[in-house]
Amino acid sequence: MEARILLASFLAIFALALIPVTSSLKSGECEVCVNVMTKFSETLTDEERKTPATIETKFRKYCKNAKGKENRLCYYIGGLVESATGILGEISKPLSWNMPADKICEKLKKKDSQICELRYEKTIDLKTVDLKKLKVRDLKKILSTWDEECDGCLEKTDFIKRIEELKPKYVREEL
Predict the structure, then answer these.
(1) 124 and 138 in contact (C-beta within 8 Å)?
(2) Which CATH architecture has domain 31-117?
(3) d(CA 124, CA 122)
(4) How far apart are CA 57 and CA 90, in angstroms?
(5) Tens digits of per-residue pLDDT, 32-76?
């Protein structure tokens, strides 16, 4: 009886091992990584693509000018001097094989999931947006980008009122 249970358990585990695991990226996932890999890949010449060491050097140079989320991606991969880790080989070799950007990012996600958690900030069009539908976090972000504060603001309506007061100063109406 025990032998049957053991055999059945073994067969079940073996069957699960045969099921293919697909981890392809969903639409919009890894947007910063895919964008950076695509832009960087376009800067490489056919000659530069031949050697991973050259690709790594060029990527470090590319990262020197990166800002915001792209700079953070460079940090995660090891493209910056202050990077704690370095997995540049995970991009240089696939780029030398002309692997698509989304497949490179898929491989990077397996190494460090933070890479695919990077997202670009959504831009808010203040001319058309209904401020009442925004979250307080977004309202605070608007004020922050204007280097303004909302002293004494406790409720969402307080933030909306402050933004409406400052709107003429920061949002220009095009004619």
Answers:
(1) yes
(2) Orthogonal Bundle (1.10)
(3) 6
(4) 14
(5) 999 999 999 999 999 999 999 999 999 999 999 998 899 999 999
Domain boundaries, the chain: 31-117, 131-170
Q: Give the CA distances from residue 27 to residues 24, 30, 31, 63, 116, in Å, rounded to whole numbers and listed in that order.
A: 10, 9, 9, 25, 12
Condensed to tens digits (0 to 9), the pLDDT of residues 112-144 reads 889 999 988 877 888 888 999 999 988 998 998
Total count of residues recorded for the chain: 175
| Residues 136-148 pLDDT 10s | 988 998 998 888 9
Q: How far apart are CA 92 and CA 55, in angstroms?
A: 6
The model's pTM is 0.63
| C-alpha to C-alpha distance for 71 and 49, rounded to whole angstroms | 22
What's the token pair of residue 101?
């950007």
Please list the helix, strand and coil fractions of the chain in percent, rounded to the nearest 5, in that order. 60, 0, 40
